[in-house]
């Protein structure tokens, strides 16, 4: 059997097995009777914390999983950095400054700046109101990152509106992650449980009116506790993570 | 009982990872903080008291009829368990990681904060996987571990490193998706993510086709994360592409994750005899293929990489037997072998650092120049091959014993054969490195154990040998506890 034929045979075998596999998955999914389980209790008690149930599940009930998800993103961003020479063994490979591939037109230059500001404002609103309206840190951060990308595409790296270097982006990402980690430590210190929602004080470890709960009061009528602050940390982290990837890949294109 | 130090075993390495990344470029600060952080990582598991930790303080509550689940109580929070097994595995990981970090700090002219940050992330992830009693949380940290390990290999550079890391990430994506789909099916069917709750819900639902699909999907993930048969080349490529001192850490992490995931699989799906049969069969395949592949290698690092993979197969055989003796012996062997293989990897690290190569055709005649290294390496080879009075003997003997007790004496014969193959392969490596006359022009100069390499690594080797001899002479404190874990898995958590 020639190489070509063996390749074809291999693809055929792979296709058959993928077919069998998909059949079982689809069969499993068709007669699927979904049980609400714990999510029923999450939804029942969630409104005591904040109206946006998705945010409450993400940041309160499963807040520690969200921390893990955030660290998947951080690890991926750092790995991208390593791939392009930051932190490899034997000294960093220096990054080159890069310019836009082709100069922007006057229309782009005029309209990009106000658009960038509007997008950033929109992202900030999504982040700060994440616990009452649809949105949150992940979404707000990615919206702000699009503004960064737009300004980089139109104005290039040196003269863009944000003017953030790779190192300052890394710092921003670190600060975002540290906000999350340290808010969890506050709960550990005050109640003995990591990521305890100190401000909401759902289980009376602290007593309402305590200094700690007042520390995390947020200027709205909800009782969301540390959730808005976690949102801010996540937004900083997601924003700077995406921007770092953009920066690194942009620099790579010119090499 | 709530224990405040349990989350710190994950949170502190995560904080350190962020800080080390921010410190990158400031050489002295990175060195100082790296050593300090590793001390804390080592100390926390020793002082943490046994118990569990509920994240966010969400309690265990009575169920309501609307939940449609058959349990009387349900766990709302993400739960971490910490008992002797977790303590032993987390401490083992911290110890080997400390050696890896110290070796990086003392041997590299320019330390990389990002590299240390990745090591910290992998420590945090593996500790979380070991302690998590929540199947989704386990998945999240498995993903972090996969990416961090790939990054550690990418940082070494070179085509082989990039290729190994790329393959690892591609297959890691498939395996991760497979585990996630399995978890989603379980969550949809039973409505809980806590492993103890799932264990209680599953009993009596064994014939559900959705559960069967989930079992298959999660077993695929287990095979990948443990580097067993269909994925053995991917793991061994990772080990051989990494620096040998970090490869010691990577293979320790693999064995710890193997044990942690296998315990979860047995707790959840222990009722399926087919599942343990699949685990057993693929583990036997890994043992044989790994040791045969080790014989064929022409590079010492690749030889060790395949030996590490075949030893993972040996651990899998013990656990896959599904009997009390087998599970206990498998867990015990995972701990022993992680120490012994780390010893061998670090001896090869000496050679790699001095000669800048580990290919057999360019090595030879090192015995004259480094007699102490040769002595330590021959001890390491004897340990891995299961020679008394060292620790691996105690566990390999118990695995063979367990195969006979379980009614599969032919498996015992295969284990012995695999061990002999491993011994032959390792002795071949030893001969070609130390005993064969050096005919190549790349003479190694005055390679001496004290010459050019710091005492830190040397002390590391001594500590590992002492640990091997210590566990070998007094195995019962460890084995008894592994046995009680096995009892708990089979009887109920």
Secondary-structure topology with pairs:
The complex is a heterodimer of chains A (255) and B (493).
Chain A lengths: L2 H28 L7 H8 L7 H9 L1 H21 L22 H23 L8 H19 L10 H26 L19 H5 L11 H28 L1
Chain B lengths: L4 H19 L3 H21 L3 E4 L5 E3 L10 E3 L3 E4 L1 H24 L5 H19 L3 H22 L2 H32 L4 H8 L6 H18 L5 H10 L2 H26 L3 H24 L3 H22 L2 H32 L10 H4 L1 H14 L6 H15 L3 H27 L19 H19 L2 H16 L2
Antiparallel strand pairs in B: 1-4, 2-3
Helix pairs in contact in B: 1-2, 1-4, 2-3, 3-4, 3-10, 3-13, 4-5, 4-10, 5-6, 6-8, 6-9, 7-10, 8-10, 9-10, 9-12, 10-12, 10-13, 11-12, 11-17, 12-13, 12-16, 12-17, 13-15, 13-16, 13-18, 13-19, 15-17, 15-18, 16-17, 16-18
Structural features, described:
With 255 residues, chain A is mainly α. Chain A has one domain (52-254). Chain A is 65% helix and 0% strand. Chain A has nine helices and no strands. In chain A, helix 5 (106-128) packs antiparallel against helix 6 (137-155). The radius of gyration of chain A is 24 Å and the shape is globular. Chain B has a domain at 283-493. In chain B, the strands form two sheets. Chain B has a two-stranded antiparallel sheet with strand order 1-4. The mean pLDDT of chain B is 90. Chains A and B meet through helix 1, helix 2, helix 4 and helix 7 of A and helix 1, helix 4, helix 5, helix 6 and helix 8 of B.
Relative strand content of chain A:
under 5%
Low-confidence stretches of chain B: none
Shape type of chain B? globular
Summed over residues and divided by their number, the pLDDT of chain A gives a mean of 86
Oligomeric state as shown: heterodimer
- Give the fraction of residues assigned to helices of chain B: over 70%
Return residue spans of chain A where pLDDT drops below 50 for at least 5 consecutive residues: none
> How many beta-strand elements of chain B?
4
Which structural class do the helices and strands of chain B define? mainly alpha
Give the largest interface pair and sizes: A-B, 63 and 71 residues
Q: Can you count the beta strands of chain A?
A: 0
The ordered string of helix (H) and strand (E) elements of chain A is HHHHHHHHH
Q: Can you tell me the number of structural domains of chain A?
A: 1
Helical/strand content category of chain A = mainly alpha
Order of helices and strands of chain B: HHEEEEHHHHHHHHHHHHHHHHH
What is the terminal separation of chain B in angstroms?
15 Å
Return Rg of chain A in Å.
24 Å
């Amino acid at each position: 059997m020639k190489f070509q034929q063996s390749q074809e045979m291999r693809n055929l075998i792979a296709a058959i097995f993928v077919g069998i596999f998909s059949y079982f998955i689809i069969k499993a999914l068709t007669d699927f009777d979904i049980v609400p389980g714990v999510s029923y209790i999450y939804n029942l008690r969630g409104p005591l914390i904040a109206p946006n149930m998705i945010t409450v599940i993400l940041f309160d009930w499963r807040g520690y999983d969200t921390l893990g998800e955030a660290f998947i993103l951080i690890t991926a961003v750092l790995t991208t950095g390593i791939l392009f020479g930051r932190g490899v063994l034997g000294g960093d490979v220096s990054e080159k400054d890069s310019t836009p591939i082709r100069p922007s037109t006057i229309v782009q230059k005029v309209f990009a700046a106000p658009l960038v500001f509007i997008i950033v404002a929109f992202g900030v609103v999504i982040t700060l109101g994440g616990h009452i309206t649809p949105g949150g840190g992940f979404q707000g951060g990615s919206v702000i990152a699009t503004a960064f990308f737009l300004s980089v595409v139109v104005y290039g790296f040196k003269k863009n509106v944000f003017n953030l270097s790779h190192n300052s982006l890394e710092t921003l990402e670190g600060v975002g992650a540290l906000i999350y980690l340290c808010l969890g430590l506050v709960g550990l210190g005050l109640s003995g449980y990591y990521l305890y929602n100190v401000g909401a004080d759902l289980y009376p470890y602290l007593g309402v009116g305590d200094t700690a709960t007042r520390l995390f009061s947020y200027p709205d009528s909800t009782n969301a506790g540390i959730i808005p602050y976690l949102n801010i940390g996540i937004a900083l982290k997601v924003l700077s993570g995406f921007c770092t990837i953009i920066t690194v890949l942009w620099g790579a294109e010119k090499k | 009982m709530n224990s405040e130090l349990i989350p710190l075993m994950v949170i502190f390495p995560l904080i350190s990872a962020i800080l080390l990344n921010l410190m990158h470029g400031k050489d002295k600060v990175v060195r100082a903080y790296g050593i300090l952080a590793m001390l804390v990582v080592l100390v926390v598991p020793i002082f943490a008291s046994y118990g569990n930790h509920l994240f966010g303080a969400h309690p265990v509550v009575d169920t309501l009829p609307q939940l449609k689940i058959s349990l009387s109580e349900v766990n709302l929070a993400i739960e971490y368990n910490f008992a002797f097994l977790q303590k032993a595995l987390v401490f083992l990981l911290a110890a080997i990681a400390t050696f890896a970090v110290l070796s990086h700090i003392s041997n590299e002219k320019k330390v990389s904060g990002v590299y240390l940050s990745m090591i910290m992330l992998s420590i945090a992830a593996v500790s979380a996987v070991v302690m998590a009693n929540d199947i989704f949380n386990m998945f999240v940290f498995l993903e972090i571990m996969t990416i961090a390990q790939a990054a550690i290999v990418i940082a070494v550079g070179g085509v082989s490193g990039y290729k190994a890391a790329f393959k690892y990430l591609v297959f890691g994506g498939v395996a991760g998706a497979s585990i996630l789909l399995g978890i989603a099916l379980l969550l949809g069917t039973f409505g809980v993510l806590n492993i103890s709750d799932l264990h209680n819900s599953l009993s009596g639902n064994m014939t559900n086709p959705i559960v069967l699909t989930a079992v298959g999907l999660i077993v695929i993930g287990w095979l990948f994360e443990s580097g067993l048969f269909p994925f053995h080349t991917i793991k061994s490529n990772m080990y051989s592409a990494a620096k040998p001192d970090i490869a010691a850490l990577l293979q320790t992490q693999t064995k710890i994750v193997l044990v942690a995931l296998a315990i979860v699989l047995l707790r959840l799906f222990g009722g399926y005899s087919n599942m343990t049969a699949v685990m057993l069969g693929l583990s036997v395949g890994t043992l044989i293929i790994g040791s045969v592949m080790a014989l064929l290698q022409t590079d010492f690092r690749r030889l060790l990489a395949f030996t590490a993979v075949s030893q993972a197969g040996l651990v899998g055989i013990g656990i896959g037997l599904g009997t009390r003796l087998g599970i206990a012996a498998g867990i015990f062997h995972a701990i022993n072998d992680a120490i012994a293989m780390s010893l061998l990897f670090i001896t090869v690290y000496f050679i790699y650092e001095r000669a800048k190569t580990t290919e057999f055709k360019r090595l030879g005649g090192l015995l004259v120049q480094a007699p102490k290294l040769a002595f330590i390496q021959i001890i390491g080879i004897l340990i891995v091959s299961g020679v008394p009075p060292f620790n691996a003997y105690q566990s390999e003997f118990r695995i063979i014993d367990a195969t006979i007790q379980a009614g599969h004496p032919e498996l015992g014969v295969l284990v012995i054969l695999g061990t002999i193959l491993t011994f032959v392969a390792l002795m071949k490596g030893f001969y070609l490195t130390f005993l064969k006359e050096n005919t190549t022009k790349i003479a190694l100069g005055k390679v001496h154990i004290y010459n050019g390499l710091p005492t830190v690594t040397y002390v590391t080797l001594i500590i590992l040998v002492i640990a091997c001899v210590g566990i070998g002479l007094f195995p019962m404190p460890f084995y008894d506890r592994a046995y009680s874990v096995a009892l708990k898995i089979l009887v109920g958590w």
